[in-house]
Amino acid sequence: MDFKLLKQLYKIHSKSGYEGKIISFVCKWTNKNIQGAKMELDWNTGNIYITKGTAKTYPCMVAHLDQVQKYHPTDFTVIETKDLLFGYSPTERSFCGLGADDKNGIWLCLQCLQKFNEIKVAFFVGEEVGCIGSSKANMEFFNDCRFVIQPDRRGNTDVITHIGFMDICSDDFIKDITPEKFGYTPTEGMMTDVEQLKENGLNVSCINVSCGYYEPHTDNEFTDKNDLMKCLDFIEHIITSCNKVYPHEPGRMKGYDCQLVWWEQYEEMYELVRDSLISDPTLTPTDLHSFYHEEYPLLGLDDFAMICDDAMAELYYERNEDAA
């Protein structure tokens, strides 16, 4: 696998609103390596649309070009230790976020562009600040797509089939992709481009898949290469096996289902807040809300305040227990 390409992507800093360098890199790489592909750059948005081959219908992948980290030191480098990749600044002696969210997704899209004869790929700007690019997507590009896959989820086990109380794929599609055979489980997720495409009226099944990055949006972000390859195997399986169109009209969850999703987000956020307060007890609910609210949009500032109170109380109790 071309992990050299992955490291090249990591080294290109592309904070939201400043994606010019990564746009240029993807366009040049595609022109050089994907012969005969039709590529369209939307100069108004920065979105990139690529079609390889001629077919009645296409598998489709999407990824976003921006990253949360607002700063890269001039000596930013990618360190590889066994199967892990992380960013580091020798001068500052500090870890640096890779932007693996979602450069892992970009890399996966480029790998599949190389492997498959007929495929469509779209890259969007501004996902991290509200799905800016995908909200202005050229929806005609997706008219002949069988399904849409976005690799933009942390970890190595999730297949996102519901986002924001909206289902984004059909039961038929979930059944045919056999996620359990590849160690994946259908679950709910957060706002990302495939949700926005559904909001735009996309009428085929979509999923968002865990692609091997961890601790996203932080300087401690890292990638597990084995989990990234696991994702690639799963996506290649879907593209190879799912040769029909998987129509789907989104439906909204209501009532009890909404409450379940909120509690799942709350419990997940509690663990993150607890770990954050252990590392830095000076963090406030406002700090944490600012840091995580894009990934956990259902949780407001009041929710974060309550989570902080509960986490601090638990930590205080644990310290007193240890002292006793």
Structure description:
This protein is α+β, with helices and mostly antiparallel strands and about 325 residues long. The protein has 2 domains: about 250 residues, Zn peptidases (Aminopeptidase); about 70 residues. About 40% of the residues lie in helices and about 20% in strands. It starts with a helix and ends with a helix. Strands 1, 2, 3, 7, 8, 9, 10, 11, 12 and 15 form a 10-stranded mixed β-sheet that branches.
CATH level-four homologous superfamily name of the largest domain:
Zn peptidases
CATH architecture of the largest domain: 3-Layer(aba) Sandwich
Would you tell me the overall average pLDDT? 90
- Domains counted in the coordinates: how many? 2
Q: Output the structural class.
A: alpha+beta
Number of helices: 10
CATH class of the largest domain: Alpha Beta
- Portion of residues in helices? 40-55%
The H/E string reads HHEEEEEEHEHEEEHEHEEEHEHHH
Quick overview:
This is Peptidase T-like protein. With 324 residues, the protein is of the alpha+beta class. The protein has helices at 3-11, 20-33, 100-115, 132-135, 171-177, 193-200, 225-241, 256-279, 285-292, 301-323, and strands spanning 38-41, 48-52, 58-64, 77-81, 84-89, 94-96, 119-124, 145-153, 158-163, 166-167, 185-189, 206-210, 213-214, 222-224, 251-252.
